[in-house]
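Notebook entry, structure prediction.
Reason for the run: the old model in the group folder had no record of what sequence produced it. Starting over properly, with the input documented here first.
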Amino acid sequence: MKIAFHGAAQTVTGSKHLITLKNGKKLLLDCGMFQGMGEETASLNRDFGFVSSEVDAMILSHAHIDHSGLIPKLVAEGFQGKIFCSPATKDLTRILLLDSAEIQESEARFAEKKITASTHDVLKPLYTMEDVKQALPLFVAKEYGDWFEVMEGVECMFTDAGHIIGSQCVHLKIKEGGKDTRITFSGDLGRYRDIILRSPEVFPQADYIILESTYGNSLHDNITGTLELLEHWINRVCVERKGKLILPAFSVGRTQEILYFLNQLDLENRLPKIPYFVDSPLSIEATDMVKRYPQYFNKRIQNIMKSDEDPFMFPGLVYIKSVQESKALNYRNGPMVIISASGMADAGRVKHHISNNIENSKNAIVMTGYCEPSSLGARLLSGAKEVGIFGVEHQVNAEIGEIRSMSAHGDYEDLCQWLACQDPREVKKLFLVHGEPEVQQEFKKRLLKKGFQDVVIPTRHFETGLE
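New structure, fully documented this time:
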């Protein structure tokens, strides 16, 4: 059997890993979209590196677009197999894919005004709403902890990854020639002692492990300090300077986490009485969906919900849906907090809010999660004095900050804790994916010291045999 890495290889986006069995059957782990890769993003998303119609089945680790975002393209190009995931991942992926298709179709219509023969293919959407609708019936939901058949000779079990609602680690048992091969794919791993979700679960011994490494060389700030940091920024910007605090936040996971912390500040009578806006229709829909799966919350949140049935709602919170309401925020004076997607500030409504507020020194833009190096969020954090947004150069006069403790990805201690249930002598190879090269090299040294003997950092389209 062979495995090939067609995305999230020495980068943190575009997750796609293809297992080819000796009998020719192909199993795809994730089918993610490349995001925030600058000018090469479009070309990376056009070419899978494999033939879609030859893939027999797919397993999806979680709903984030960098793991699920090219599924409709896969189906449009001929994939007809089943897509296995958890129930919450199935529901959440539907929301995210429909939103992705809508954005692409909208951008394509706008681009038609500037279209030329040479740019036509680049400006075409990767897929349409209709493509998404063709893909959705292929999803099959499976619960955590139950072994199920993916195809003849391949069994799978999910364990909770603790990354976002419904995220799962994937554990495979593959029978070939009378021999069992055990493969584990981490997907994206969450944090132990997460403020909302359960911790990642222990898992059976594996022969091969595919492990994400986003924060493989760093430690997060203590998560218990997030409440104070958020309170600090609100007081500093909105109370003292009467400015606008803009919080770019991923629609799934990060937005709900921010709302939870704001609700806690309100319950403790520490939340300033100013307007709070969630300006993202996707975030609103995702928050409603998250509330439908309280069984995935940790025990602390479940106890809180006995007296506060909605831990993501508080007085003063307003959800913005229409474009007109969103634009009206630009003309509204006075202090306010705006939570809006995308988390890297590279697209979506938050990019408009940054464009309209970045030159005012009373305001602040505070990043709340990982930013790919070429994204607008990363450029702001790097100290850029000028940034181009929608073709216009803006002076960066607003204060720029970040809350590092707010991450859905585990740091190197979390990643090592997840691996602690494994005997490293029995792991034949450990593949590091979903990370930047310099981070992966540092994490590789740490893993070698822990006894893992063969740690591989694959490049894109790298293929290797498994014993």
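Summary: The chain has 15 helices and 22 strands.
The old model has been moved to the deprecated folder.
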